[in-house]
Structure formats: structure tokens, C-alpha cells
């Protein structure tokens, strides 16, 4: 339901290669939200979009993404 939940989920993703693989296979933000929910983290697509905007600003500015798997999902979602 919140950015805190999303950030907590991203922390979990960093240490779980199986979860990273699931996120890499996700074809939409809705799938990412569903995967997160399966792991006890509840947030909305809007929260992903907010993080996506922040990450895109970092990418445009030459910075790196906080979490590679989210960047991959972001790139996939942007193609939709």
C-alpha cells in the first residue's frame, strides 16, 4: 500500500536470486505487484510508477538504478 512496502520488497529482492528471476520474467507492473503480494508486500502500480520516475531521472542523469530487477521491469513496462 505504500512506498515503504515497495522499498522493503526491493530489499528482499536484493538477496533472493529466485525472486530476481521472477521479476525479470514479469511482463507488466501488475505482475510485479502480484509477485510482491505473494511475498507479503502490498503496494500499487502507482508506487512502482513513482519509483520508475525517480529511476529514470537517475538514468538520464547518468546515475545507476537502486535495484537492477526493477529497472528491467521498468524497461519492459515502458515498451508496452
Structure, briefly:
The protein is mainly α. The chain is built from five helices and no strands.
Describe this structure in words.
- The structure is a single chain.
- Helices cover 72% and strands 0% of the residues.
- It contains five helices and no strands.
- α2 packs parallel to α5 (68-78).
- Mean pLDDT is 74; it is low at 72-80.
Are there runs of 5+ residues with pLDDT below 50, and where? 72-80
Strand percentage:
under 5%
Q: How far is it from the N-terminal to the C-terminal residue, by CA? A: 24 Å
Q: Could you tell me the mean pLDDT?
A: 74
Would you count the extended β strands for me?
0
Major sheet description: none
Oligomer: single chain
Portion in helices: over 70%
Number of domains: 1
Layout of secondary structure:
Elements: H1 3-14, H2 17-25, H3 29-38, H4 45-60, H5 68-78
Please describe the structure with a list of short key phrases separated by commas or semicolons.
80 residues, mainly alpha, 72% helix, disordered C terminus
